[in-house]
Amino acid sequence: MDYYNLLTTCAFIHLLVSIPYAYSNYVENKAGQFFSSGHTNNWAVLVCTSRFWFNYRHVANTLSVYRSVKRLGIPDSHIVLMLADDMACNYRNPKPATVFSHKNMELNVYGDDVEVDYRGYEVTVENFLRVLTGRLPPSTPRSKRLLSDDRSNILIYLTGHGGNGFLKFQDSEEISNMELADAFEQMWQKRRYNELLFIIDTCQGASMYERFYSPNLMALASSQVGEDSLSHQPDLAIGVHLMDKYTFYLLEFLEEVHPASQANMNDLFKVCPQSQCVSTPGHRTDLFQRNPGSVLITDFFGSVRKVEITKDTINLTSSLKPLIQRSGSGDMQIESLTYVDQLPVAEIIHQNAIQGLSYSIMTEGTPVNF
Amino acid sequence: FRFPSPIGHISTCPSLIGQCCKTHPGSFQEELVIRPLHSGDIYASFQFRTLWDTDFLQEGQKVSHYRLFPKSLGQVLSKFSVRELHISFTQGFWRTMQWGQPFIPSPPGAELWVWFHDTVSDVDGNWKELTNVLSGIFCASLNFIDLTNTVQPSASFKPLGLGNATDHRFLRYATLPREIVCTENLTPWKKLLPCGSKAGLAVLMKSEKLFHSSFHSQAVHIRPICQQCSSKAWELRQTLNVVFDLHTSGQGKKEWSLFKMFSRTLTEACPLASSSKVYVDITDNPEGELFELSPATPLLGQAVVLGDRRTYSVYDLSRAETFGQLRSFNLLLRWKGDSGDMLRPLLHAERYVAGFGLQTGEIHTVIYNNHPYRAFPVLLMDSVPWYLQLYIHTLTVTSKSRDNKPSYIHYQPAKDRHRPHLLEMLIQLPPHSMTEVTVQFERALLKWTEYTPDPNHGFYVGSSVVSALVPSMVAMRTNFTQDQPLFSSFVPVKEESSYFVRVYTEPLLVNLPTPDFSMPYNVICLTCTVVAVGYGSFYNLLTRTFQVDEPSPPLSKRLANLIRRMRGVPLLT
Lengths: 370, 573
Fold this sequence. Notes:
The complex is a heterodimer. By secondary structure, chain A is α/β, with parallel strands linked by helices. Helix content of chain A is 28%, strand content 14%. Chain A has ten helices and eleven strands. In chain A, the strands form two sheets. A seven-stranded mixed beta sheet of chain A has the order 3-2-1-4-8-9-10. A three-stranded antiparallel beta sheet of chain A has the order 5-6-7. Chain B is an alpha+beta fold. Chain B is 17% helix and 34% strand. In chain B, the strands form five sheets. In chain B, strands 5-6-4-3-7-8-2-1-10-13-12 form an eleven-stranded mixed beta sheet, with helices on one face. In chain B, β15 and β16 form a beta hairpin. The chains are: A alpha/beta, B alpha+beta. The interface between A and B is large, with 65 and 81 residues.
């Protein structure tokens, strides 16, 4: 009896002691899972390639993906948004500064806080490829650059009019699937991505990912070769089709996703089956190393904030620089504090010609009498 | 700024301002001016001013502590040694004849003019980088500004800030008339304000209402100024002018309120602002017979702006009683009577293209002087792209159907693909007259890669700028002191009898001869077909040989031949 009591007491004490140990194990496992995907930052490149008012739906497509990506955490500084034409403030838009995705104007995907990096005539094949490969002129501002590194997961979304093996940019030029594949290979060789998800919503979209040959690429398209992607529904007040079918159902799917959701890529492949989309969406995962079932949606659409827990103390006190004092007299008073005459007529009339570049006719300066 | 009413008195407390300037070297003021227009439309002008006592350009000092002044602009100023920067984004065209003169004018599209410091050695290089950096800050395609649309005016655009020397080698001016303004330009503009769009007057800036208007213009003006002219400070002014149309925003009813215009009401002033005020122009409504203004305010103010003395009702948002019981301030203007005709603006300009066909044309600029007896000089600046080749020998300036010779002409001819035309003329406008400036041009053929993706839309020519010193009706104040409201103290005044005004004309849309872009494909197909047919036929003629080939005989003939062979008789052919 005593021995039995001792045994149960020992077991009980052992259990009590091991609970925190099991809990910390559990936490470490969770933390381990957290760090398993291998990327540390997320980028998104969203491109709409069509111009003119009747291509409203392509801009709405891109903006709805932009909205989802922002909602799931990717900040504007990590999104390169390229819109080939302006629909929101277009003079034909009956509700200015809005772009709707659902008919009866239910959802304004344009919103109040949007930053478009490349707009209008800047959306060209050359600029797109330069953004991807990073070969931009030195004076390009940061917001127009894709500053990814080898631990970045990049989402690339293209929409517009396309055909078998090409995508049309602004009705005047096109990008071919070989060019795109080569651009991705350049990115791989320069270690500009960790994993890349490529989504395209155009007619015959699957032809655009046929030629990829770089590792760690996953691609989705809205239709197979020989099929057209169709638009969803028109709005009679605005007068144009508002969204394409594939992106419409993709938006509906992404609205259910929240930053902590565990939805994976297999769910994304099931978005918009043929019964809803009329075209057959396709996907390509053979170049991707991980199993798509273990890839979270938020690995590409959301943003990762890695937190490293440390137990060391860090000393934060540093010597503060003294406040910048103005140097009182001296430089300030050399330049006299006066304003310039805005239209000095007499001075203008007697102005001498600038050397070499122009000539000026000087007259006596008397005003004409009437 | 005088307060004629004995009831309301706001003490500007100079001692208090001096005190706060010692501890925080900078201040922020915001104001909103509402001016009802005669056509039933309403004009709202926001002005935000940040003052900062520092010197970006001083050698050896690196400014790193930014409080009210936005860091992005501060870094731009110090990196490119900018003395003055003026950038504006406008949607719509300001209709002077219906709306009068704006407080701060701007042309349609984007306009950028910059004065660099005279220590800069490579102004063009700095200009190119500056436009790229600004295109990133404001999400606009300012990187399209290059040497083909930049000009160096020789007499217009004198600096609006402090300065002595005006060497025009350090001035650059460019406009992009095609630039679209939308929420993506407003978002970063709002983020430059100290309170952002979260408190103060900026909460009213909702893009859905602001862009559904007849005219929308947002601008940033940075220049050095002097406060009480004892010390130098940097001034950042952000202005937003918007005109709401009676029929589209007002639903046809002559009744305006802050909620109707902006779909928001004011709940508090920006806590970082030293002054936050709303002014309503009641000059045409002295006894309240034209429109009714509520909530009533005892504060009145007068200011001399654009040559006229105007009376304003003032609402001070830093006082809690302005917001009333509901803690929300919604201004209401209800029209009672019909307003008469508007006073004609003294200076007005128009521009149009005349001619027919796609080869030649004529640009006409018409400037009206509506003053009954005073003549005044105007400086007309025209910047025309190189592909409209101007014939300056056809330039004529006529007033009242007589030749009017300008007292100063500066013309810089264009260089193909390098530089646009620049034409500046100082013209004396006779009183109550119309002056017409005409010049003929020829359209150039562009290379096929130089066309935009939608060339049949046409090509834009930027607005002409007419700068003038217009005689004012009341004496202007030359003392540029602190206590004037922001909207009346933008342009420095040098003499009392006239005020400086800038008028922009319409931009022109010109069609250039556009090729058929499918022609290269057509030519290749046709040429290849011709070559294939021609060469193929020739090759066949030379190398083809003919052989006689007998057809196989039918069955009956074959049987007959078989029998004949057996009989030993000659065969049938």
